[in-house]
Amino acid sequence: MQEDWDNLLILDGCRFDMFSDSYADFLGGSLESRTSMGSASKEFMENNFYGDSFHDTVYVSANPHSHFVPEGTFHDVITLLDTAWDEETGVVLPEDVVAAARDAHETYPNKRLVVHFMQPHYPFIGELGQQIEHSGVGKRTSDGDLVSSTKQSKTIWAVLHYDLADVSHEDVWEAYNENLDVVMPAVESLCHELGGKTVITADHGNLVGEWIGPLPVRGYGHPPNMYVPELLEVPWHVIEAETRRDVVSDTPVAQTDAEREIVESRLSDLGYR
Fold it and tell me: Which InterPro entries does this chain map to (predicted)?
């Protein structure tokens, strides 16, 4: 939060290597790696946001953990768990994050923006990814119950770890990268629309079967308090701008709490419960 930017676009669960391989030259920006302050979203938010105040900043988020950011931390927190949740895929889609960020910029033209996408974090929503059985995908009732479906109830990382389905590491890695490709057009549109200096980063990375020590075991997902490069090394991609935003700090907007049941349901859909 102490860095110089007008827009901070967070890709959830995006490893540095996967971003670097495909998007190192994205929009002519400059890319370097940074060490995240958490190996999971909640830890990332606690270490970057909690206990401080950023009343010159608005936080637009598709991540369920943003609901728990203490009131008064930001000028406003706009969570999309209820208003923009896509029942078919079990996640907030990139285009809905773009729409919310655009609205936030119009409402608060003199504020910095943190925009937190859920991709490339699973559920996988690309063409290949939707063919892989894993949780977070499946039509849900208004009460959050999963409608009859052939989809797995386990996270994709549990599916891999315990060999619960006929899916290969290679397919999951491809679907994971496909999720990054799905979100990047939305990121590009915001870079053009919002104006000002933009930084693209991630809250944490992800393990996809890498060996982790000291015991010779393979790791999956993004457990908290696990400090290995695949989880902590994230992109910091800077896109400069000739015109910068005139940012001012104002009294925070009073928050309207999302329903606890909705938040818990979304956390469950994304493998946090």
Answer: Alkaline_phosphatase_core_sf (IPR017850)
- pLDDT tens-digit profile, the chain (273 residues): 999 999 999 999 999 999 999 999 999 999 999 999 999 999 999 999 999 999 999 999 999 999 899 999 999 999 998 889 998 888 999 999 999 999 999 999 999 999 999 999 999 999 999 888 765 433 334 444 444 343 445 788 888 888 877 888 899 999 999 999 999 999 999 999 999 999 999 999 999 999 887 778 889 999 999 999 999 999 999 999 999 999 999 999 987 655 555 656 666 666 555
In the block, which residue shows the tokens 């479906």? Answer: 149
The number of distinct structural domains making up the chain is 1
Q: Note the pTM of the prediction, 2 decimals.
A: 0.89
Strands (E), 172-216: 198-202, 207-212
ω before 123 within 30° of 0 (cis)?
yes
